[in-house]
Every structure is written in structure tokens, then in C-alpha cells.
Amino acid sequence: MGQSQPKPEPPNPIFIKLWREIKWGDNQADLDFVKNYKLEFDDQTLRILLLGPEGAGKSSFINSVQSVLKGRIYSQALADSCSAASFTREYITYKVHKEGKSFYPFVFCDIMGLSYDEGILEDDVKLALRGHVKEGYKFKPESHLPEGDESYEQVPKPKHKAHVLVYVFSADTVECKKEEFLKKTRRIRLDASSQNIAQIAILTKIDKLCPEMKEDIKNVYILRKMKETMEMFSADLGIPMNCIFPVKNYHEEINMNEDINSLILSALKHIIQRGDDYFTFLHSRYEPS
Predict the structure, then answer these.
(1) In whole angstroms, what is the distance from residue 90 CA to residue 136 CA?
(2) Considering the entire predicted model, what is its pTM?
(3) Residue 282 Cα distances to 125, 138, 272, 275, 288, angstroms
(4) Which of 9, 106, 123, 179 could form a disulfide with 144 if both were Cys (CB 3.0 to 4.6 A apart)?
(5) Cβ neighbours around 80 below 10 Å, total
(6) Phi and psi at residue 231, to the nearest 5°
């Protein structure tokens, strides 16, 4: 009688093969890319609009980016760790200080959080994408910004329009989102796509996803749970996997951490590159050959 073949080992329920490379702690190349980035076209600033559920960490992501670029914990955008409701209620544009009196050629636009029943209205998001919302406008969940209002920009300049739409979702609550909320987000995504606006997704709070991630965020691209969460998010909203980036915002830390920086810089670099692609497409499409 022949010997029976050994049964193959079952797949590891927690870890998988490394599927995305990242140079942990070796951040100088990405940092140099961001610090040396210049728009090819004059008189333009890359406008990055952040959109996501209430409490997902939009403001914290802005602060985290600024912290990485300054090399210290920095807090400019107000963030709230207590309320489940949206803390940001106004349309606020954050410049990113470089050195002296100079600023980076990109800005972050923070708006009221999305919700399936409250939060910012879908119509107001679409107005913000098109540059119709003036700085400081206070969003109202019960009514959209009407044309003719003093906060309504009648004829937006190209610099007022969004060039990159960044979805910010919390990794540990992605699978809990209601279908109506996802439908609203998909409609906004389709509207942004119709304007050729670049789109990227950030999944925050990855350390809350599972114990193995909390223990070491360098497990991010070998954890089955993380990849399955990203795949589900991609399927729900139609965003390609190579446009989704997990990050951990600075929240409880008082000192900088190079591994946290690695994920934030990786996401920021791709946001800038997609925005740059948008400008290139815009000018190549409309300039006579």
C-alpha cells in the first residue's frame, strides 16, 4: 500500500504573504519628494478635499501630515476625540507651512462629516468640489447652500475647485456602514469622476482593527484582516486597491514615530502624484496641440 500524502496546512487565519512593499523608517526619499514638489503650471495650488464619516479622522490626518513635515507633533486643525457627531462644521482651507513665509503648493480642505441621516448634504459636497463654497461657510444638515447666498461663489476660479478628493474612513468601522450611506458616497464619487477629479482613499485608525496591528503597525501589509477590509471597501465604493492607503494618525503620541511617518508619507506622496496627473490631464486636454 502506498503512503498517504500529508494534508496541506490550512491557510494562516491571521497572516498572509507580504503584498505591498514599504520601506519602514526609511522615509527620506518620500520626504524629499514632498518637500521638493512643485506644480508644473504657474499660479496653481493643489486643492485636496477631505470627505468622510463623522469622527473618521479627517482633521487628525491634516495634523498628522503637518507633524511629519515639521518633524514634531503639530495641531492646527481642531480634532475631537469625544463626540460621535461631526466636529468640523465649516469649510476650512489649511495651508501647509514650509519655512520662513513660504507654504507647500498644496492645501487641505476640511468639511463637515458625512452621515446617512445627518451631517453634510450631498449637494453641498458637490458644490464644494466645483468651488462654489466660500471659505468659512457653516454647513447646515437641514438645508444646502443656496445660489445667491453670500457664501456661494458664483463663478469659481480653477484654484477654488477640488483637484483631489480624498475619502477618509476609519478602518475599524468600514464594515458597519449602512447601505444608504454607501449609496450617498458612491453618488458623490460618480460626480467627482464626471469632473475627472483624482480620488484616493485613506483608512485611518488601523491600530484598532485587530490586536496584531495594535502591537506593530508594520504588520499592516501582511495581516489578512487589513487586506480583507481594504478589498471590501474597494468593492463597496469602487475605488481600486492601489488607490487605498491605510494610515495611523498621530493621536495619543507626544513624540514622532518613523513607522507612522512611513504610512502617512506613502499616502501623501500618492495624493500629490494623482493631483499632478489631474493637472497634466487638464492642460493636455484643453491646450491646442
Answers:
(1) 5
(2) 0.91
(3) 22, 31, 15, 11, 12
(4) 123
(5) 14
(6) -65, -40
Q: Which of 237, 243, 262, 280 is nearest to 46 (CA)?
A: 280
**pLDDT over 70 at 129, yes or no:** yes
Model confidence band, residue 84 (pLDDT cutoffs 50, 70, 90): very low
Q: Give me the phi and psi of 109, to 5 degrees please.
A: -110, 120
- Residue-wise pLDDT for 9-44, tens only, equals 677 878 999 999 999 989 999 999 999 999 887 678
- Residue showing cell 500529508: 6
Residue pair 125/167 in contact by the 8 Å Cβ criterion: no
Half-sphere exposure (CA, 13 Å, Cβ side) for 201?
Answer: 26
pLDDT digits (tens, 9 = 90+) for 209-235: 999 999 999 999 999 999 999 999 999
Strand 164-170 with 103-110, pairing: unpaired
